[in-house]
């Protein structure tokens, strides 16, 4: 039995159903992220767990107790908000001690606990400042300290880094993870940033249209996406429309090209499918490398080159099909030019077959207009 | 480019001087007129007459009392209402805003006759009670109190602050007195002083409900005397500006007001 459990939870606002029959189990001490685009129901689900929204149906259990109708003040769940929500009239010290004061903790104990929290977030010297005297990153650290000072059963974070700039976001997400691991606190984290979710979470629940599309470790979600939506939401992806031409040998066709896959294609002969390949799985064919029976080789031309710093993204054209390829930046090598002929190889294990009748998240399909 | 910039700057100064002249010339004229109580010399004799008149203190004290009651009743009624509307019933907000304009649209004389008509007979014979005057004043002050509080509530993220406090275990009492009201200090002060200024100078309700208030006293003095009304006008003006100055001074020390340095990451 999980520490936080959602049993068939749904939420509707009027005729608009935002969360649909959601089941989820979060273990004690686990860090689970809800990841998805706008309107997928991730924040509403978190707000139902926090008690700010009442489920239209279903049950929410925390530590074995049904809290579906318990007011937020009685749930003992720490919450961190997107825009910090620090009390402007209170200093950092008073903000952190607020929950303890409400709980009737003695002044001496509050002082001690606040000092511990300030040390935890490395902000001892800011104790007497007011929120407006702090940067966004500092304010969010104080908000985090305030939420965990009361020793809540679980910590809920609603896009806590989205108002911060990129560098601080990376630093703060590492701090959040370090503090979570140090305290062993069960955490649910809402984000629309897939990189953030991957770097911080034990498990990610990818949400779409009020449902969990897939839940798994970041490794599973990235490498074994269950649907084309998940596959295209996480990272960049070549998503190609294909037809199964040899189900027994796992061969599909894309236009005039035939590609080998390692997928089981039973009962899919002649059926349309989607073939996915990560851009990093492709590499330039080296004449010295042996081409085995498990390798796909494609010949085409360079269409565009995007220099992204640590990596270089190539857009290549193979017949009518466009594909991405990512390579590490190498200052010693000269970049090819548009129109240069290229051959790329990728293993059949890198190809993943998904059902054809699904909508993808970012629509990174191999069509000219989208590339 | 430089000539154009200088020209614009000069024009700004001209407008500023015109604006200040429009505002200060009548004020200075009134003040100078109030000093002419004694023939041939400038003196404060008109002010002495005003302060020596027992009705001045009597009516002023009465209106002061009424303003305190109005402020208390108004705040108790309107502050929780405004908070609730902002938090739970935002759809009702346009309707309340429309209501808050009613005292500007409906003349006080209509309100006064409405009150007299409604509360002249048992079981609600309140015409002889100052409670009815306070009730009328609350209606007249409603726009000032509601709009001040609403502006204050809009400037803080009420919903998120409330939810943050709730997630930390706070009940409605703590949320109101420890989180919301301390962050509404400037708005509350504005509401209080605007109500005070309105009640102190109010004429129609006090006359029609027959109460010895400061407004009717000023009207009476203005009708019968020459220099004293000017002295009273200057005194009223000083009271208003005194109130505004107090708001400024008190709100300067409010923690969380954005007047300080930014922090480091």
Automatic annotation (TrEMBL), chain A:
Gene Ontology MF terms: ABC-type polyamine transporter activity; ATP binding; ATP hydrolysis activity
Catalyses which reaction(s): ATP + H2O + polyamine-[polyamine-binding protein]Side 1 = ADP + phosphate + polyamineSide 2 + [polyamine-binding protein]Side 1
Cellular component aspect of the GO annotation: ATP-binding cassette (ABC) transporter complex
The keyword Calcium is assigned to this record: no
Ranges where the ABC transporter domain occurs: 4-234
InterPro entries: AAA+_ATPase, ABC_SmlMolc_Importer, ABC_transporter-like_ATP-bd, ABC_transporter-like_CS, Mo/tungstate-bd_C_term_dom, P-loop_NTPase, PotA-like, Transp-assoc_OB_typ2
GO annotation terms (biological process): quaternary ammonium group transport
Sorted UniProt keywords: ATP-binding, Cell membrane, Hydrolase, Membrane, Nucleotide-binding, Translocase, Transport
Matches recorded under Pfam families: ABC_tran, TOBE_2
Signal peptide (UniProt feature, chain positions): none
Enzyme Commission number(s): 7.6.2.11
Subunit: The complex is composed of two ATP-binding proteins (PotA), two transmembrane proteins (PotB and PotC) and a solute-binding protein (PotD).
Role this protein plays: Part of the ABC transporter complex PotABCD involved in spermidine/putrescine import. Responsible for energy coupling to the transport system.
Family, per entry: Belongs to the ABC transporter superfamily. Spermidine/putrescine importer (TC 3.A.1.11.1) family.
Annotated protein name in UniProt: Spermidine/putrescine import ATP-binding protein PotA
Gene: potA
TrEMBL record, chain B:
Ranges of residues in domain ABC transmembrane type-1: 60-250
Subcellular location as annotated: Cell inner membrane; Cell membrane
A GO BP annotation: transmembrane transport
A Gene Ontology term for the protein's cellular component: plasma membrane
Entry keyword set: Cell inner membrane, Cell membrane, Membrane, Transmembrane, Transmembrane helix, Transport
Pfam families associated with the record: BPD_transp_1 (PF00528)
Main subcellular location: membrane
Tagged with keyword Transmembrane helix: yes
Keyword field contains Membrane: yes
Membrane topology: Multi-pass membrane protein
Domain of life per record: Bacteria
InterPro entries in alphabetical order: MetI-like, MetI-like_sf
Segments traversing the membrane: 12-33, 66-86, 98-116, 123-144, 188-211, 231-250
Family named by the database record: Belongs to the binding-protein-dependent transport system permease family.
Protein's UniProt name: ABC transporter permease protein
Source organism: uncultured spirochete
